[in-house]
Amino acid sequence: MTTRTAWRQALVVLVKEFVDSCRDRRALVSLVLTVLIGPVITGFMMNRMADRQRAAEEVRIPVAGVQYAPALVEWLRQQSGVEVVAAPDNPEQAVRDQDEYVVAIIPKDFAERFRASKPATVKLVADSARADTFPQVNRVRRLFEQYGAQIGSLRLVGRGVSPAVATPLQVQEVEVSTTQQRAARLLAVIPLMILLSAFTGAMQIATDATAGERERGSLEALLVNPVPRSALAIGKCLAAAAAAMIAVTVTASLCAALLRFIPMQEMGMRFRFGVPHFAGMMAAVLPMCLVTAAMQSAVATLARSFKEAQSYMGILILAPMLVGVLGTLYPIDNQPWMYGVPMLGQYVLLTNVLGGRAPAVLAFVAAALSCVIVAAFFIRLTVALFRDERIVFGR
Amino acid sequence: MIDVVKLEKRFGSVTAVSDVSFTAGDGRVTGLLGPNGAGKTTTLRMLYGVMRPDRGSITVDGVDTSAKPLAAQARVGVLPDVYGLYPRLTAREHIRYFGELHGMSRAALAERTEELFELLDMQHIADRRAAGYSHGERTKVALARALVHRPQNVLLDEPTNGLDVMSTRAVREIVRRLRADGRCVLFSSHVMQEVSALCDSIVVVAGGRVVAQGTPDELRTQGGHDDLEDAFVALAGAANGGAQR
User: Fold this and answer.
1) Is this complex scored with an ipTM above 0.90?
2) CATH code for position A130
3) Cβ-Cβ contacts under 8 Å, B100 against chain A
4) Residue B241 pLDDT > 70
5) How close, in Å, is residue A1 to chain B by CA atoms?
6) In a domain, A306, yes or no
7) pLDDT for the residue A100
8) What pLDDT, on the 0 to 100 scale, is given for residue A178?
9) Residues A220 and A299 reside in one and the same domain
10) Same domain as A207, residue A138
11) What mean pLDDT is predicted for residues A132-161?
12) Are A235 and A326 in contact (CB under 8 A)?
């Protein structure tokens, strides 16, 4: 039996497993849903975010007691994108009921204290538990602060003091991250979604072709054929890998579409996403599909039943989530060793590609190489398990 | 031709097969007869290369199964205990899958598939998925799959188990044709009538060892009964009594 024959047999197994799993309607539907749901939800959330940003630029401020501070209200009206409206009768209740996101209350003694150069109060009624109106409330607060600062400066000038005296400290923030990087941090879910789809995509074939095949009793009939166990295991692993690659490509394409249609400019981000970025993402993550497919196949072969295999899949999928969560908690600084760890390496590469910092070709090669090595280990393990009578005939 | 010498197989502390030797010749139907749990399926599994014997040797057409397992497997066609059809594949695809794994060319495979459909009278299920098959239809597909590469040796594990009269007849007809064709047919059964109706020689196994072998006539003499079933009960019972001591 030559190697060439064995590879041809592996290909036969690959094609059969692929066709077989494509006909599994229910599994296919659930796969499509799991692949779609991430990008769709992210897109929805981004759109909302952009909407809110837009809303913050055009604020409607309900003000109670307009008559006590006509100058202030007039100034507010003159600011761009600001509309002053009458406040509801019970401001606190209105905010609590989410009828209004904020209400400004100008008390009766405002004018009196203002004229006396005492701090005059403006009450802002807001609900800090509401995350969605946060940018708007923030804008309103800054408007009032701005007015206060202006009046303060004028008063100092009127008394012959330079306003600079009253500003002993000026905090100046110097932003070092590029806008693209900031956008990438916001879009940190995208690498995670792509890594996850490498798992979900391979799962169906990895379990059905191993634990499922044994549970249906078709494994014995298959093993009767003059096919080396290695060819069987490789064919099955590669079929799972092919499915994972398709899932990853679909997810990445959806994310790419997402990045094109979300109004990033309105979120204050300049974000470019073109063909080179997409190619970079693919180059980073495709080798990873070998790892997920081979790892899942090995674990599923080891499981005693199809059910058990499926529950192990649920545990395995925590791995990319862990990487993703750690990645957002501890923003990853690029250490060269990271490229040698499958999953982590892909995560770093994806984040960098999205951040507009093209990683070195060597980094891609190193990450791919480590994937191939780890995948080879798991494929060997699967082959060894397929050779084990206790595994083949159940325990 | 299949030659089995002193086969032994243990699972942990359980000895499933302890001493099985026999020869199944070409152009003959050999029956492996024994009660449930006698070691028939384990013996067959070693013959078709999915289990390795702990001791003893098997040669298929002179090819040693432990030295050249794949070459030996290429010379056998197997109808296993559990067919294990793929519910989402059609009969044609089942046959094609195994034919391709045997390295058959596309043309040869297409020709052989039509031939098998004809032989087993299964054109009507050729392109239907296996999910809805009757037991008889499943047996036909499994048989066709086993015979796709024209194996010289055919191993059938309880082939008529649970089949209706029509399907049983069809299977017997196939077995007779294979014999007429000069093939070596070995099949296991616990049904006496089955074996006596078909077999040229019978190997009686009980408790993991061969307790008697020969033609049906020879067995009647050995068992001391004119009725083959009585002879079988006498032979198998004696062995079981010995094993349970």
Assistant:
1) yes
2) 3.40.1710.10
3) 9, 12
4) no
5) 7
6) yes
7) 86
8) 52
9) yes
10) no
11) 86
12) no
Distance from CA of B78 to the nearest CA of A (A): 7
What is the C-alpha to C-alpha distance for residues A291 and B161, in angstroms, rounded to an integer?
43
Residues A363 and A324 in one domain: yes
Residue of B45, B51, B86, B129 to mutate when probing chain A, most A C-beta within 10 A: B86
Mean pLDDT over B157-163 rounds to: 87
Q: Is residue A169 part of a domain?
A: no
pLDDT in tens, A166-175: 777 877 766 5
Parallel, antiparallel, or unpaired: how do β-strands B2-11 and B14-24 relate?
Answer: antiparallel
Q: Which of A350, A348, A342 is nearest to A368 (CA)?
A: A342
Query: Residue A375: inside a domain, yes or no?
Result: yes
- The three-class DSSP label of residue B184 is strand
Examine the fold and report which residue of A116, A133, A163 is the final residue of a domain before the chain moves on. Answer: A163
A373 and A319 belong to one structural domain: yes
Let me know whether A36 and A77 are in one domain: no
Instruction: Provide the residue range defining the domain that includes A312.
Output: 3-50+180-392
Is B73 in contact with A224 (Cβ distance < 8 A)? yes
Comparing CB atoms, the residue among A221, A225, A393 nearest residue B83 is A221
- Number of domains comprising chain A: 2
Residue pLDDT, tens place only, B167-222: 888 889 999 999 999 999 999 988 877 888 889 999 999 889 898 888 888 888 87
Query: Looking at the domain assignment, is residue A199 inside a domain?
Result: yes
Chain-chain contact of B84 with A219 (C-beta, under 8 angstroms): yes
Of A135, A163, A191, the residue that ends a domain is A163
Cβ contact, residue pair B71, A216, below 8 Å: no
Pairing of strands B76-79, B153-157: parallel
The confidence score (pLDDT) of residue B128 equals 95
Q: Spell out which residues of chain A touch residue B70, defining contact as CB-CB under 8 Å.
A: 1, 226-228
Are A257 and A384 part of one and the same domain?
Answer: yes
A-B C-beta contacts closer than 8 Å:
75
* Distance, CA of B205 to CA of B39 (rounded, Å): 7
Instruction: Check whether residue A106 and residue A45 sit in a common domain.
Output: no
Pair (A74, A20) in one structural domain: no
HEC readout, chain A: CCHHHHHHHHHHHHHHHHHHHHCCHHHHHHHHHHHHHHHHHHHHHHHHHHHHHHHHHCEEEEEECHHHCHHHHHHHHHCCCEEEEECCCCHHHHHHCCCCCEEEECCCCHHHHHHCCCCCCCEEEECCCCCCCHHHHHHHHHHHHHHHHHHHHHHHHHCCCCHHHHCCCCCCCCCCCCHHHHHHHHCCHHHHHHHHHHHHHHHHHHHHHHHHHHHCCHHHHHHCCCCCHHHHHHHHHHHHHHHHHHHHHHHHHHHHHHHHHCCHHHHCCCCCCCHHHHHHHHHHHHHHHHHHHHHHHHHHHHCCCHHHHHHHHHHHCHHHHHHHHHHHHCCCCCCHHHHHCCCHHHHHHHHHHHCCCCCCHHHHHHHHHHHHHHHHHHHHHHHHHHHCHHHHCCC
